[in-house]
Specification:
The complex is a heterodimer of chains A (334) and B (353).
Chain A (H helix, E strand, L loop, with lengths): L1 H28 L4 H6 L5 H11 L5 H13 L13 H36 L4 H15 L2 H15 L22 H7 L3 H38 L2 H8 L4 H31 L1 H6 L5 H10 L3 H29 L7
Chain B lengths: L24 E12 L7 E12 L3 E5 L6 H9 L7 E9 L2 E2 L5 H7 L4 E4 L13 H12 L4 H14 L5 H4 L9 H13 L5 E5 L7 H18 L2 E6 L2 H7 L2 E6 L2 E7 H6 L4 H8 L41 H4 L5 E3 L2 E3 L16
Parallel strand pairs in B: 3-8, 3-9, 6-7, 7-8
Antiparallel strand pairs in B: 1-2, 1-4, 4-5, 9-10, 10-12, 11-12
Classes of the chains: A mainly alpha (334), B alpha/beta (353).
């Protein structure tokens, strides 16, 4: 198992290098350029030329790439072409926010989705199944921004159960080490800060997690319905086992593979799809920043952010592959 | 006939185990009827008027082709038919208790402890993601107050009993690492883990290679004899019945058409269907090149017994009455028969068991 993980980690290197090359060439092939965005519509060709020379955008792409990689190795991610900020500084501020939000959304989707999917799948066609399936359909078709605004309006503004926006209450003193607010609160033992961060995550987490929830419900339901008809489940029943053992050991363990795959795929979508939720709840994540970086062709920011998303996605899928082996001995690598 | 000792299959090892059958019935099935159907639809009757009893230690065979209701009968005894869309009526008395009236919780106690079952396909009947050891020990621990180590010890002992090579190592292995025959041994070990009073084997050898079939039957025979377990053997293979069963019930389209002790049934089948089944078994002593004798046609599917005998279309002995009235199961001495025009001794395609 360890060898498998190491090999997969090693395989990630060429994948990420390849992606970085593609990304580098690709964003430069997009119409428009950073200089034009910086200087505006009426910039003179001379001014644009000057900026391009300054940032090295006139060099051959290959040369630009090696310069970039050379700086990357020294830990230098470059500066934003929009405001000259080092990419690293915004990076460590924004990524934790988005990752935390995505994690909350995923947690919500998994904790609720797997049991609901199980109950629906046990009796396909039963009333519980019908209720769960139609509700999950509703979850898939509801636009995220609409749900986010609705949740905020009802539970934050009207009922006042949850904070309306941001990641924490300014009145609560909190020390930030990792910028993962919940984690920070736990590390520093500032329990009130940790709790405050959790409370701030609930509504955005639900808003962002609804679509993954609906998908997980449906995948779990289909997998459970499938497994329920298997001969070995009948064998388990014929043994007169405790219902909890039949559920966990015989049904869920077999039904989990497709669910785990889905969860892995959802993670990537969550990271890149958090932008709407982030803007409704005024969470300073990567969403809005990345969007602006795209529209203004902020090459250094785009390169660093997209590569990092790819890295997270690769790691999550490595975890998915590892959990396959844990769940199913037949795919275990010897 | 009741304390009959049974020879092995063909010339195989003669059976030395003498079994004493008590006269008290362990399981009595009375007028069992199972109907499938959704609400508002006309239900399909899978099993009807099924009545039989089995005594402690007895070996009983239920014979019939696919769709004759053999498996449904066994699932009804186990209480394993789906909870919705099925109506079961009649009586299943086990050790003085009506199982059809028992609660699900009570049935959980009975299943795996008092009544156990072996299913047809060993390739799919074991959980692929759980070790053999756990699959055996969980049924032990589910019914007995036993620690993990002790249950594992017992599981190894069970594997040894079903002649599993290298039982200690198998405990940590998964089903996909075992052959079909070994998996069926595991399933036998699971079924006998708590020394049940009754074992139902639903075509336990059908999915196996012919060479493995004989081995598995031998093991099965040995272990039920050792524990004094009563056995219901469900099969379409008369050879299996011949080597194993004290009495036989032949089913056709959901009803029992003939019941008898093994010897008289084989020597003198009375129902044309039983006769056909026996005649269709290939024999080693028949002349070379002689074609097999099939029963012509196949079972009809819609409401077979509502108008006349369901076997009429395929029956060589049919008379006019067969399509006019539905035959009832009549008891004639040691035998029960559902036929208006049974075979006589001279016309019967008898066989020696």
């Amino acid at each position: 198992m360890l060898r498998f993980v190491v090999r997969r980690l090693a395989l990630m290197v060429p994948v990420l290098v390849g992606l970085s090359i593609l990304l580098f060439v690709w964003i430069r092939a997009l119409p428009g350029e950073p200089a034009r965005s910086m200087l505006g519509q009426r910039a003179t060709p001379e001014a644009i030329e000057r900026i391009n020379n300054l940032y090295g955008f006139n060099d051959p792409v290959l040369q630009q790439y090696f310069t970039y990689v050379g700086r990357l190795i020294r830990g230098d991610f470059g500066e934003s072409t929009r405001n000259g900020d080092p990419v690293v500084s915004t990076f460590f501020d924004q990524f934790p926010a988005t990752i935390e939000l995505s994690f909350a959304a995923l947690l919500f989707a998994i904790v609720l989705g797997i049991p609901l999917g199980y109950w629906a799948g046990r009796r396909v066609g039963g009333w519980l199944d019908n209720v769960i399936v139609s509700t999950s359909l509703l979850g898939v078709v509801t636009p995220v921004f609409f749900l986010a605004i609705l949740l905020k309006l009802v539970f934050a503004e009207y009922l006042d159960w949850f904070p309306t926006s941001r990641r924490s209450d300014a009145r609560i003193e909190a020390t930030h080490i990792t910028n993962f607010y919940v984690l920070d609160g736990l590390i520093t033992r500032e329990w009130d800060a940790a709790w405050d961060a959790i409370v701030h995550l609930i509504l955005p987490g639900i808003a962002l997690g609804t679509i993954p929830l609906a998908i997980i419900v449906r995948i779990t339901r289909a997998a459970v319905a499938d497994v329920m008809g298997e001969d070995y489940v009948r064998t388990a029943y014929s043994k007169g086992l405790d219902p909890a053992i039949i559920r966990n050991r015989h049904v869920m363990r077999n039904a989990l593979l497709p669910v785990v795959t889905t969860i892995g795929l959802q993670t990537g979508l969550l990271l890149s799809g958090a932008v709407l939720t982030e803007s409704v709840f005024e969470i300073g994540g990567i969403g809005r920043y990345l969007f602006e970086a795209i529209s203004q062709r902020d090459y250094p920011v785009l390169q660093a952010y997209i590569l990092f998303i790819a890295l997270i996605f690769s790691i999550v899928n490595l975890l998915v592959d590892v959990s396959y082996g844990v769940i199913d001995p037949r795919v275990r690598v010897s | 006939m009741t304390d009959d000792t049974i020879g092995g299959r063909g010339v195989n090892a003669p059976d030395v185990v003498r079994r004493d059958l008590s006269t008290e019935a362990l399981l009595t099935v009375r007028d069992l009827r199972v109907e499938f159907g959704k609400k508002g639809q006309r239900p399909t009757t899978a099993v009807d008027e099924v009545t039989f009893e089995i005594r402690r230690g007895e070996h009983l065979g239920i014979v019939g082709e696919s769709g004759s209701g053999k498996s449904v009968t066994s699932l009804a005894i186990m209480g394993l038919l789906p909870a919705t869309g099925v109506r079961v009526s009649g009586q299943i008395m086990f050790d003085g208790e009506d199982l059809l009236a028992a609660s699900e919780k009570r049935m959980r106690d009975v299943r795996g402890r008092d009544i156990a079952m072996i299913f047809q396909d060993p390739m799919t009947s074991l959980n692929p993601v759980v070790t053999i050891g756990t699959q055996i020990s969980e049924v032990i621990r589910g019914h007995r107050d036993m620690g993990k180590a002790e249950a594992n010890e017992r599981a190894v002992e069970l594997l040894r009993k079903v002649a599993m090579p290298d039982p200690g190592r198998r405990m940590k292995e998964y089903p996909h690492q075992l052959s079909g025959g070994m998996r069926q041994r595991v399933l036998i070990a699971i079924a006998l883990a708590n020394e049940p009073q009754l074992l139902i084997a639903d075509e336990p050898t059908t999915a196996l290679d012919v060479t493995i079939q004989a081995q598995i039957l031998e093991i099965l025979k040995q272990v039920v004899a050792d524990t004094g377990t009563a056995l219901i053997m469900i099969t379409h293979d008369l050879g299996v019945v011949a080597g194993l069963c004290d009495s036989v019930h032949v089913m056709y389209q959901g009803r029992v058409v003939e019941s008898a002790q093994r010897r008289p049934l084989f020597a003198e089948p009375r129902h044309p269907y039983t006769g056909g089944l026996l005649a269709s078994v290939p024999r080693l002593d028949s002349p070379r090149g002689q074609p097999l004798k099939p029963i012509p046609g196949s079972p009809t599917d819609v409401l077979p017994w509502t108008q006349g005998c369901a076997f009429t279309p395929r029956c060589a002995n049919r008379i006019d009455t067969c399509t006019e009235k539905t035959p009832a199961l009549k008891i004639e001495g040691q035998r029960a028969l559902r036929c208006f025009n049974p075979l006589t001794l001279s016309s019967a395609g008898g066989a020696t068991p």
